[in-house]
Please model this.
Amino acid sequence: MSQDFKRRTIVNWLLGGGVIAWLSAIFFPVLKYLQPPSIPEAVVSSVKAATVNELANNSSKIFKFGNKPGLLIKTPAGEWRAFTAICTHLDCIVQYRDDLEHIWCACHNGHYDLQGRNISGPPPRPLEEYDVNIQGKDVYVSKRT
Ligand code: FES
Model:
């Protein structure tokens, strides 16, 4: 009786394991097929952000730098500046305020000057600044190396 019970237990374990292996063999490839592949983020080091005539003095534009927003500014003096548009406080999108003539974050009233330095409010550090190059009629923004 006890010997019969042990055999039955072993057979049950083997059958259970076989069923689990069979289900895994079916569902694992299906789940792997349904899961999107991880695609590494393309490294963007330079983008065309605007054309020269697109911005008047004392205006700005948000552009796409890879998968992140950038802020291109033409200062009141006509100089080009570019920064990441992500606030260093809690990652809100910053904007250029032509009335204040500097960069402002609406989330918690953070202010940055035209060099990207945090001048008031909660932002703990300056914005990352990009290089701006004019090539013909195009304005290119690139990461500093
Ligand atoms: S997220 Fe910009 S000031 Fe808080």
User: Anything to note?
Assistant: The pocket of FE2/S2 (inorganic) cluster is lined by residues 87, 89-90, 92, 105, 107-108, 110, 121-123 (CB under 6 Å). DSSP finds one helix and ten strands in the chain. The CA atoms of residues 86 and 93 lie 5 Å apart.
